[in-house]
């Protein structure tokens, strides 16, 4: 049964539309990540669910009850703000109790819930401190604690990790993953960091240009991107998209020719592909390996090398001027300017039609 | 080298320091010296020690003037602070109407005291004034704001509040805009009513501004002068004479410069004491609140 149901949500600021016919269904105890670049509408959508923004059209239902006409405090949701938004003049204890007091929860119950949240988040020693006396990581915990004590049906997290330094971000990510195991509620997290979305979410909602581009499990988003935007936005470094034309042939799978003349045999079914050229061949770096010149699918020149330790990213240019990102071993002997061959693994490659829609290899998921 | 550098540095601050010494430091000590002398506007005086202060302590006119000053300050400061805060809350939005109203409410602050008292004379005069006409229209006897000893201080207070509203309102607006918006969003998600949000979020965040406004206005209103002189000349029978008006009359009416200086020193000490007391009373426990 769906916990949260968004149907046909529209929102515009003045004459500028920011959300266009967005619908989504979130299951019980599901962890959803809204992933997208700035301006994609993901934060607006979160704020509409929270009640901090109004919607122009559409409905928000939580547990079957329509909540979009309700004020934020009556919706049964709790939010963790990007900048925490702790009340500076209240102690940690008061910060966590504030919402419960407003909801007229009995005093003993408030104390019990605050104590339990403090125990879970390991901030028992900080309960009488003011936010200004705490570190960023501790404030983050208080912000989460303030959400937990409300025992909401839905947690809303607005870029919860973006204010933490790298080490703390990793740790908090793990803690968030543990937290969701213990809490009987659904989570929606807004992020522009795909690693956060991939590691935490059950399903990722990729947003761009006012719309949901794709909804799916992390690996599905990665291996079967619905369109060129998702293909380029998810995965680092971004997928290479090379213009290609469909070659004549008989087999069940499409064979395409790049501008450099190189031909790639894909595992994408020929049926269903639009005829003619205007296709894009999508290659993730791990699908492109380095060979001796002449030994691969195409020859190329090394433009730039990025040594990451366990692997080396090779930014190369094909004869036709097409840039391709390849992957080589960590101790690759290559240098900038070297002539190399590239083996393009057509079996895992993607094809995108002129409309941007993705077509994927049948066998390899 | 070091000495020479210090010297050149001093040159830059010299114009300010000279002016500061000339018009603030020198008069302060000169006044202190004058207060220990019996001296008029012409020629040198005669050292009399604390005689002026002894005389002040026994002067019923001075004590009445001081009492009036404290009364009118007590009438003005709380009302002014609350009104300015309410106005700031009402006008703290980005709309064009709010901007216009902010301008209108601030406009009274740029008027000189002469204009202000002129306006309020027309409002307060019992026979042809605005309030008098309103009272008559309601079928009541018009109140003699400027000649009834019990009404003259409230009349002064109303005039002053109308005149002084702009600056505190501006300070409160600046304070309100310092409060991060997500604090209010968090409060909304915490199911806080408007009153709770005001009491638990806005007022604590404005604490410093409130203290500042109260201290500035207290120090300013304890020196209230122009309104009293121009509206009522301190009357009727001294009922609206303030401490600074007493100073002015003593120095430039009766030419008793030494006596007036003694009164000035007394007033200075009183304002200092009141301000420090306010600072002390509100300054404690402030360390803990601060950045969020």
What this model shows, in words?
The complex is a heterodimer of chains A (365) and B (292). By secondary structure, chain A is α+β, with helices and mostly antiparallel strands. Chain A has two domains: 2-233, 3-Layer(aba) Sandwich (Rossmann fold), CATH 3.40.50.300; 240-359, OB fold (Dihydrolipoamide Acetyltransferase, E2P). Chain A contains eight helices and 21 strands. In chain A, the strands form four sheets. Chain A has a six-stranded mixed beta sheet, with helices on both faces. A six-stranded antiparallel beta sheet of chain A has the order 13-12-11-14-20-21. In chain A, helix 2 crosses helix 3 and helix 2 packs parallel to helix 4 (136-148). The mean pLDDT of chain A is 90. By secondary structure, chain B is mainly α. Chain B has one domain (58-283): MetI-like (MetI-like fold). Helices cover 72% and strands 1% of the residues of chain B. Chain B is built from 14 helices and two strands. Chain B has helices at residues 2-34, 51-57, 60-91, 96-107, 113-124, 130-137, 152-164, 166-178, 181-189, 194-205, 207-221, 226-231, 243-253, 257-283; strands spanning 37-38, 46-47. In chain B, strand 1 (37-38) and strand 2 (46-47) form a beta hairpin. The longest helix of chain B has 33 residues, at 2-34. Chain B is globular and about 75 Å long. Chains A and B meet through strand 6 and helix 2 of A and helix 9 and helix 10 of B.
């Amino acid at each position: 049964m769906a916990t949260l149901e968004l149907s046909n949500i529209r929102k515009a600021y003045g004459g500028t539309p920011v959300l266009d016919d967005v619908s989504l269904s979130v299951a019980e105890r599901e962890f959803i990540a809204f992933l997208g670049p700035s301006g994609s509408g993901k934060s607006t959508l979160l704020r509409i669910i929270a009640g901090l923004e109004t919607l122009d059209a559409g409905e928000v239902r939580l547990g079957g009850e329509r909540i979009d006409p309700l004020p934020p405090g009556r919706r049964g949701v709790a939010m963790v703000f990007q900048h925490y938004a702790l009340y500076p003049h209240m102690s940690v204890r008061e910060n966590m109790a504030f919402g419960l007091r407003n909801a007229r929860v009995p005093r003993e119950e408030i104390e019990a819930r605050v104590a339990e949240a403090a125990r879970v988040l390991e901030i028992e020693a900080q309960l009488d401190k003011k936010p200004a006396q705490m570190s960023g990581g501790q404030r983050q915990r208080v912000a989460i604690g303030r959400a937990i004590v409300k025992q909401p049906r839905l947690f809303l997290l607005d870029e919860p990790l973006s204010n933490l330094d790298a080490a703390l971000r990793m740790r908090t990510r793990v803690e968030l993953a543990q937290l969701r195991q213990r809490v009987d509620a659904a989570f929606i997290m807004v992020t522009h960091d795909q690693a956060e979305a991939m590691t935490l979410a059950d399903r990722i909602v990729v947003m761009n240009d006012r719309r949901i581009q794709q909804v799916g499990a992390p690996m599905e988003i990665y291996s079967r991107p619905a369109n060129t935007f998702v293909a380029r936005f998810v995965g680092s470094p971004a997928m290479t998209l090379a213009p290609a034309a469909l070659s004549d042939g008989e087999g069940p799978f499409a064979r395409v020719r790049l501008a450099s003349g190189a031909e790639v045999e894909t595992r994408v079914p020929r049926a269903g592909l639009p005829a003619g050229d205007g296709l894009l061949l999508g290659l993730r770096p791990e699908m492109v390996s380095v060979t001796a010149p002449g030994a691969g699918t195409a020859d190329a020149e090394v433009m730039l090398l990025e040594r990451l330790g366990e692997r080396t990213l090779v930014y190369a240019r094909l004869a036709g001027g097409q840039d391709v990102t390849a992957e080589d071993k960590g101790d690759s002997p290559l240098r900038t300017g070297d002539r190399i061959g590239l083996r393009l693994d057509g079996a895992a490659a993607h094809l995108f039609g002129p409309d941007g829609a993705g077509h994927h290899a049948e066998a390899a998921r | 080298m070091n000495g020479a550098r210090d010297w050149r540095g001093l040159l830059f601050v010299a114009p300010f320091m000279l002016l500061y010494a000339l018009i603030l430091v020198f008069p302060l000590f000169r006044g202190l010296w004058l207060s220990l002398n019996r001296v008029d506007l012409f020629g040198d005086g005669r050292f009399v020690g604390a005689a002026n202060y002894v005389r002040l302590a026994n002067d019923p006119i001075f004590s009445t003037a001081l009492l009036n000053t404290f009364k009118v300050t007590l009438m003005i400061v709380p009302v002014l602070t609350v009104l300015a805060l309410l106005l700031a809350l009402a006008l703290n939005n980005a709309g064009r109407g709010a901007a216009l109203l902010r301008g209108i409410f601030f406009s009274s602050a740029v008027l000189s005291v002469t204009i202000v008292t002129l306006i309020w004379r027309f409002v307060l005069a019992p026979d042809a004034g605005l309030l008098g006409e309103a009272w008559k229209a309601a079928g009541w006897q018009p109140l003699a704001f400027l000649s009834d000893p019990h009404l003259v201080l409230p009349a002064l207070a109303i005039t002053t509040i109308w005149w002084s509203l702009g600056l505190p309102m501006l300070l409160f607006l600046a304070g309100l805009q310092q409060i991060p918006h997500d604090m209010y969003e968090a409060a909304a998600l915490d199911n806080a009513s408007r009153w709770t949000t005001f009491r638990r979020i806005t007022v604590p965040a404005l604490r410093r501004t409130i203290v500042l406004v109260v201290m500035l206005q207290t120090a300013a209103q304890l020196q209230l002068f122009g309104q009293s002189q121009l509206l009522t000349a301190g009357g009727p029978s001294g009922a609206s004479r303030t401490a600074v008006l007493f100073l002015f009359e003593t120095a430039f009416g009766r030419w008793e410069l030494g006596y007036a200086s003694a009164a000035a020193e007394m007033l200075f000490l009183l304002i200092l004491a009141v301000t420090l007391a306010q600072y002390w009373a509100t300054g404690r426990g402030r360390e803990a609140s601060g950045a969020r």
